[in-house]
């Protein structure tokens, strides 16, 4: 692993890249996962590498939705496990959500490795190996899932998802929450709640909101969900991206 000096102005971004490369070598992240991360980084740069107001609103709506859910599930892929495995386990515990490893580039070996990795971080009863159900409308191994997990869930949190599967979950009548730095991706548009934030900030934010929101009444949680509008959030994220790009251009030209 390349040693990154703490003084480097892009320290966090470089350390995160190294982590993904290392996790790819361990067989947890797919090779395509590195490319997906690069796309995410570009959007993160454009939203200012921070949790903006639009992200905070989505994170609160997501927590309220999961607290109100009867069978919430967090779907975990290679990138999500590598970047936020420990935090996802923590969030699952607070929200009483099951965790299921569900992969785009599925191999049984990688599912097993990710489950073992999550268990090494304290995860228990992680679903993934030996699937016994299929998400209708999806071809090949991407459809494989568990009856007691994603298949019967009412609310699914699918971070860094591909558009087809998010839509297929919607078609099953589920409430779909995603974490996706690209506000114009098909996943972002297909989901009920789109958190336009980096997963490495989004999950810790959700943990901290869950601790407070757990004490809210059902009516108050419903109010949070009712006042949420995903189309407005996506518009706010796109406006922020345009403004940041213009500000950056003006700053460069003033030099
Ligand atoms: O582990 P697997 O086999 O399930 O594969 C996982 C990937 C991510 C490779 C797979 O789901 C995939 O190809 O996804 P996409 O279609 O590239 O979509 C990933 C989305 O996540 C893109 O819109 C990225 O902008 C976004 N993204 C990437 N990194 C982050 C992110 N969003 C939030 N936080 C990130 N760190």
Which class in CATH terms? Alpha Beta
CATH superfamily: Phosphopantoate/pantothenate synthetase
pLDDT < 50 stretches: none
List how many beta strands DSSP finds: 7
Largest sheet: 5 strands, parallel
SSE string: HHHEHEHEEEHEHEHHH
Round the mean pLDDT to the nearest integer and report it.
Answer: 95
Structural class: alpha/beta
Shape-level CATH architecture: 3-Layer(aba) Sandwich
Helix content: 55-70%
Strand order of the largest sheet: 2-1-5-6-7
Q: List each distinct ligand once.
A: ligand PTJ
Number of helices, where a helix is a run of at least 4 consecutive DSSP H or I residues: 10
Q: How many structurally independent domains?
A: 1
Span between termini: 36 Å
Whole-number radius of gyration? 18 Å
CATH fold node name: Rossmann fold
Shape annotation:
globular
Strand content: 5-15%
Task: Write structural notes for this entry.
It is a single chain. With 255 residues, the protein is α/β, with parallel strands linked by helices. The chain has a single domain (53-237), classed as 3-Layer(aba) Sandwich (Rossmann fold), CATH 3.40.50.12640. The chain contains 10 helices and 7 strands. The chain has helices at 11-25, 31-46, 53-68, 78-95, 108-120, 163-171, 186-190, 199-213, 218-226, 230-254; strands spanning 72-76, 98-101, 133-134, 144-145, 155-159, 175-179, 193-195. The strands form 2 sheets. Strands 2-1-5-6-7 form a 5-stranded parallel beta sheet, sandwiched between helices. A two-stranded antiparallel sheet has the order 3-4. Helix 4 runs parallel beside helix 8. The longest helix is centred in the last third of the chain and has 25 residues, at 230-254. It is globular. The chain binds ligand PTJ. Ligand PTJ binds at residues 30, 32-33, 36-37, 39-40, 43, 77-79, 83, 103-105, 160-162, 179-182, 185, 198-199.
